[in-house]
Design goal:
Transcription Regulator spoIIAA, elongated, 542 residues, two-stranded antiparallel sheet, alpha/beta, 5-stranded mixed β-sheet
Length: 542
């Protein structure tokens, strides 16, 4: 009983400390999504309560995220939303469609789909998206009305009109940013978020700032309304589906990364399909009541863990605290200066703007081009198209790497081991036996070039009586690989050279058995090692 009471007390304290971070971020992300301030607060309640009931991560904090808010703003603009009313209605359709996409993916048990987005792509996308978000907040910092939506056009417009910047608004935003970054360096008050301190200071100074022309947040209407939806202009349902799938991918990649990171840290089990369902229902509820899309953002989740969360109840306590704050202090929240909210958004995404995230890829000499292409794609094509372009580029680079044929000749080292003679020149080749190993999985893009290299190696040696091909790198064989192997066996047989396959995976062996090549009978497919294949006599009918 005492342990349970201590558990709930710890979660309650965590919820209190989280509320000061989550409420202002929710209001700020509403502005990033071009929605009224209450949209983020509704998303906050929906995400925290629904995930606490259905989700499984002890630390995940499901609320509005900067990336999804930015994508939603771009999506509603692309759908032709010209005013706030249209944006609210279209965003409800998009967020609900995103929830449905999550539910379908969870029902189909597609929890591993985030693996389609390579980490270098995600790092580059996050960096590029953070640049876009920071640029979109600059007009709020300097109180400048802009019309451009493209990154480079907006950048040019902002700096072309420096004479129209409002000095007091700029000073407010810069002061808030300095305070936020300074609070990160104060180790003595880890449970008091700097965001809350900046918000309180902004509210206290609001009358004086408003008198000097600094814009305030304005009215927040939190009365729940019956869900209302409207078809997009000209029946643009296909773009709605595309944007919803894009939002789902972005939210799930971000959420799964956060959930998995803290699960590994605390030796907890990850249940991705259950989390898909939880995120789907959270987005459905949020969208139905005109809230923002929600996901498990890294900043909120890490803050939850750092504050000492013991269970998912910490999120519920945070939501309850936010509700109390809204009911008691709503008029004060409406007085938050807009440059302060913009500073909160910039501070939140600043962690994604560290060049150090690219350092490992340059040190490893791997995926440098992929990560930089992801950044460039987001800036050039926008958030969703940029992400899709970056994913396509990463898959193209993978295909290019796999389709580049690399074939090793193996020699004997020691009693039983066969190793590459290029890497280990002291390895001895068995007279009359040529041992070959493809260094990547054999499939349609590289099968013929690989076996062309194999033919070349066979022709280089005049005394070859047996070719052994070690296929441990190939978990399965597609039709092109099977046909190419059959042709290779026929080519060798015409030169009175036998062919054996060693170290076959089960799926590859079954495929070759079904292919039933006469020059590669079942007896030549059962060698568990290259040594077994090289030691067996040619007349063996294993």
């Amino acid at each position: 009983m005492k342990a349970s009471r201590a558990l709930h007390l710890g979660d309650a304290v965590t919820g209190l400390s989280l509320a000061g971070l989550l409420l202002p971020e929710a209001v700020a992300y509403s502005g990033l999504a071009d929605l009224p301030p209450q949209a983020g607060v509704i998303g906050l309640f929906a995400g925290l309560f629904v995930y606490a009931l259905i989700g499984r991560s002890r630390y995940a904090i499901v609320t509005a995220t900067s990336s999804s808010a930015a994508v939603l703003a771009a999506a509603t603009l692309a759908l032709g939303a010209d005013d706030v009313t249209q944006r609210v209605v279209y965003s409800s359709v998009l967020v609900c469609a995103t929830g449905i996409a999550f539910l379908l993916a969870g029902s189909a048990r597609l929890g591993a789909m985030s693996n389609l987005i390579a980490r270098p792509v995600l790092r580059g996308f996050s960096f590029g998206l953070a640049l876009v978000i920071v640029l979109k907040q600059l007009p709020h910092i300097v109180a400048l009305h802009t019309h451009s939506t493209d990154f480079f056009a907006l950048l040019a417009e902002v700096f072309r009109n420096t004479g129209s910047w409002a000095p007091m608004s700029l000073a407010t935003g810069v002061a808030a940013l300095l305070a936020l970054f300074s609070c990160e360096r104060i180790p003595h008050v880890p449970r008091v978020p700097g965001v809350l301190l900046v918000i309180v200071a902004g509210i206290a100074a609001a009358p004086w700032l408003a008198a000097h022309g600094v814009a305030l947040t304005g009215p927040i209407h939190l009365a729940l309304e019956m869900p209302t939806f409207a078809a997009p202009a000209n029946g643009q349902w296909l773009p709605v589906v595309e944007f919803a799938l894009g939002l789902m991918f972005i939210l799930y990649a971000e959420s799964y990364s956060s959930i998995r990171s803290f699960a590994l840290k605390h030796d907890e089990r990850v249940r991705p399909n259950r989390d898909l369902i939880a995120l789907g229902l959270a987005n459905l509820v949020s969208g139905a009541f005109h809230g923002t899309p929600v996901g498990a953002g890294y900043s909120g989740t890490s803050a939850n863990e750092a504050a000492g969360a013991q269970s998912r109840a910490a999120g519920v306590y945070a939501a309850a605290t936010v509700l109390v704050l809204v009911l008691l202090f709503l008029p004060w929240i409406e007085r938050i200066p807009e440059p302060v909210l913009a500073a909160i958004v910039i501070h939140a995404v600043s962690k994604s703007l560290r060049l150090a995230v690219f350092r490992p890829y340059f040190r490893w000499q791997r995926d440098r081009l992929v990560s930089l292409t992801a950044v460039a794609a987001v800036l050039a094509f926008g958030m969703l198209d940029g992400l899709l372009a970056a994913i396509a580029f990463s898959l193209a680079m993978l295909l290019h790497s796999l389709s580049s044929p690399r074939l090793s000749v193996l020699g004997r080292m020691g009693a039983h081991d066969f190793v590459s003679v290029t890497r280990f020149p002291e390895a001895a080749c068995t007279p009359g036996v040529l041992v070959l190993r493809p260094e990547e999985p054999m499939f349609f893009a590289n099968a013929e070039p690989l076996l062309a290299l194999a033919r070349h190696q066979a022709l280089q040696q005049t005394d070859v009586r047996l070719v052994i091909i070690s296929l441990e790198e190939s978990p399965d064989l597609d039709g092109t690989a099977l046909e190419s192997l059959g042709e290779f066996a026929v080519w060798l047989a015409a030169r009175k050279i036998a062919l054996r396959a060693a170290r076959l995976k089960e799926a590859s062996r079954e495929a070759l058995l079904r292919a039933d090549f006469s020059q590669l009978p079942a007896a030549e497919l059962d060698y568990s090692s290259v040594d077994d294949a090289a030691s067996a006599p040619l007349s063996s009918a294993r």
